[in-house]
Amino acid sequence: MENKRCLEFEKNPIQDAISRIRFAPASNNLLISSWDTNLRLYDVDGSKLTFEASGDAALLDCCFQGKTAAFSTGSDCSITRYNLDIGTSKNFGNHDDLATCVEYSEETGQVITGGFDKKIKCWDSRSTKPLTFVNTVNVAVESMSLNGFIAMVAVGTSVNMYDLRKFSSSYYSKRVDIQIKCVRPYLDQGFAAGSYEGRVALKYFNPSNQNKDGYAFRCTPMAKDKQHNMAAVNDIVFSPSTYGDFITGDNDGYVTIWNAQTLKNPNSPSSTKFHQILPKSCKSSSLSPFQVSNMSDEEHQFESKADAGASKTFPQQAGTIRKNGYIVIKNRACKVVEVSTSKTGKHGHAKCHFVAIDIFNGKKLEDIVPSSHNCDVPHVNRTDYQLIDISEDGFVSLLTESGGTKDDLKLPTDDTLLTQIKDGFAEGKDLVVTVMSAMGEEQICALKDIGPK
Fold first, then answer.
1. What φ, ψ does residue 73 adopt, rounded to 5°?
2. Please, is 423 exposed, middle or buried when counting C-beta atoms within 10 Å of its C-beta (0-12, 13-18, 19+)?
3. What would the pLDDT profile of 2-30 be if each residue is shown by its tens digit?
4. Other beta carbons within 10 Å of 428
5. pLDDT classification of 290: cutoffs 50, 70, 90
6. Which segments constitute the Translation initiation factor 5A C-terminal domain (predicted)?
7. Helices (H) and strands (E) in the chain — how many of each?
C-alpha cells in the first residue's frame, strides 16, 4: 500500500498492550493509552513523541479535550486530566471500581465516564466541582461512544442510549445477544457492537422490517481444524470516506475491513474486503482506519441467534477480573476470592495473581496471568426447579418450566445442604432447589423452602 508511515518506538518503547488510540480532532497527533501506565502523544507528521505522563495504574481508555487537553481512565479507579501544552496532569475524579471508558462532548463540554462500579458519571470540565450527575446501571459499563448529543453505553448484552441534555434515564435500549466489549455508532442509522467471543452485531434504529432489525456474524477467521478463534473484538471504526465500510480489530491482531451494506447478504463475496494480521508488537485494544492490505483466504461465517452464546466460556482481560468474579483455572470453573496485581516492570507486563475456589468441588486453585492478556471466563447460570422426588440411589427428580422432569442430577455433596433437602422432603415440604451450571457441569447449590405441601 502506498504512502505508509511508521511511528518509531525504539527510543521509548510501549511496554504493554495499548488500550486506546485516538486521533486529535484538528491535527495529525495521536493519543495512546497503555496498560504500561503511560499516556503518550505522538506527532505523526514528525514521527516523534511530544508528551508522556506516567501513572501508578494501567490506563484503560483516553480521549482528547480539544487541542490542548486529554483525559484517561485507570485500573485504580481514577480519571486523570492532562494539559498537553505544559506537560502536567492531575486527578479529575474517581469511580468506586475500575474506570473503563471516557468520552468528551464538544457539544456540551461534558466529560462522560463509565466503570465496573456500574455507574455512568457526567462531569463539567469547566467547573471547580465537576461531578454533575451519576446514573447507576445493572451491570458494569464496558464501553461508551458519543454521536453528537447521544451517548451509547454498553452494559452486559445491551446498548443503552442517553441524551446528554437530559441524562436522568436512557431513552432507548437494545439487547444484542452478545457479551459486549465495544460499541460504536453507525452514522445515524444504528450501531455496531463487538463481543468478547469474536462476534459483531449491527443493529438499526428504524428497520424497514421489524423482524430484520440487524444481524450478527463472526469476524474471527476459521483455523485449519475448522474451529473459530475466540478473540475479543476490541474496537470497531467506521470509515469517514466510504459509506458502509468499517474496520474490526481483535485481540489476536487481525484487522479486517467490512461493508455493512453487502453484509446484509451473508453469501455476498464482497462483504469482507481486506484482511491483515498485525505483528505482536502492534496488537492493541483500539485501532484507527488506516493501512490495511488485501485479505487472505481465511473464512468468515454468519450465524443464527441459536449459535450465539453457545460457547462454554468467553475471553476477558485479566486486569478487569475482580474479586467474586469467575475465571477458568486448569479447565475448572472457579470463583475468584482474592486478586492482586503487581506493578509493571521495566521489561515486562504487570501480572495478576488469582486465588480462586472451584465452584463445584470447593478446591483452591491459583494462577498468574499478565494483566493485559485474556483469561477464559465461564458462563455460569442458575436455574430453579421444584423438587418432586429423591431416589434410593441419591438421584433427584425435578420439575422443569415446560412441565417435564429432569432426572440426571444427584443430591449435593455439601453435608449441610444435603441434610436440609432430605429433612425438608421427609417432612413433606414443597422445596425448590437452585441448580448451578457451567462448562457442561451441573450441581444443586441452594435450597428454597416454599412451605408445606
1. -120, 150
2. exposed
3. 445 556 666 677 877 788 888 888 888 88
4. 9
5. very low
6. 379-448
7. 1, 35
C-alpha cell, 82: 492532562
Q: What is the pTM of this model?
A: 0.68
Q: How far is CA 337 from CA 329, 407, 409, 438, in A?
A: 13, 32, 27, 18
Rg (CA), the chain: 24
Extract the C-alpha cell encoding 5: 508511515
What single string gives the DSSP state of each residue in 278-343? PPGGG-BS---S----B--S----B--TTTTT-SSEEEEEGGG--TT-EEEETTEEEEEEEEEEPP
Show the domains of the chain with their CATH numbers.
Answer: 18-282 (2.130.10.10), 313-378 (2.30.30.30), 381-452 (2.40.50.140)
User: Distances in Å between the alpha carbon of 236 and those of 185, 247, 255, 257?
Assistant: 9, 6, 10, 10
| Cβ atoms 37, 57 nearer than 8 A | yes
What is the pLDDT confidence band of residue 291, given thresholds at 50, 70 and 90? very low
Q: Which of 184, 285, 202, 291 is nearest to 238 (CA)?
A: 184
419-443 pLDDT, tens digit per residue, is: 999 999 988 888 999 999 999 999 9
Residue 275: burial class (beta carbons within 10 Å; 0-12, 13-18, 19+)? buried
Rounded to whole angstroms, the Cα distance separating 315 from 326 reads: 11
The edge-to-edge listing of strands for the beta sheet with 158-163 is 141-147, 150-155, 158-163, 172-175
**Beta strands 405-410 and 395-399, pairing class:** antiparallel
Residues in CB range of 67: below 8 A, 6 or more apart: 24, 25, 26, 27, 84
Torsion-angle region of residue 140: left (phi > 0), alpha (psi -120 to 50) or beta? beta
313, 379 Cβ separation under 8 angstroms: yes
Contact 232, 219 (CB under 8 A): no
Backbone angles phi, psi at 136, to 5 degrees: -100, 135
- The per-residue pLDDT for 264 is 58
CA-CA-CA-CA torsion sign (285, 289, 290, 293): positive
Of 319, 315, 335, the residue nearest 327 (C-alpha): 335
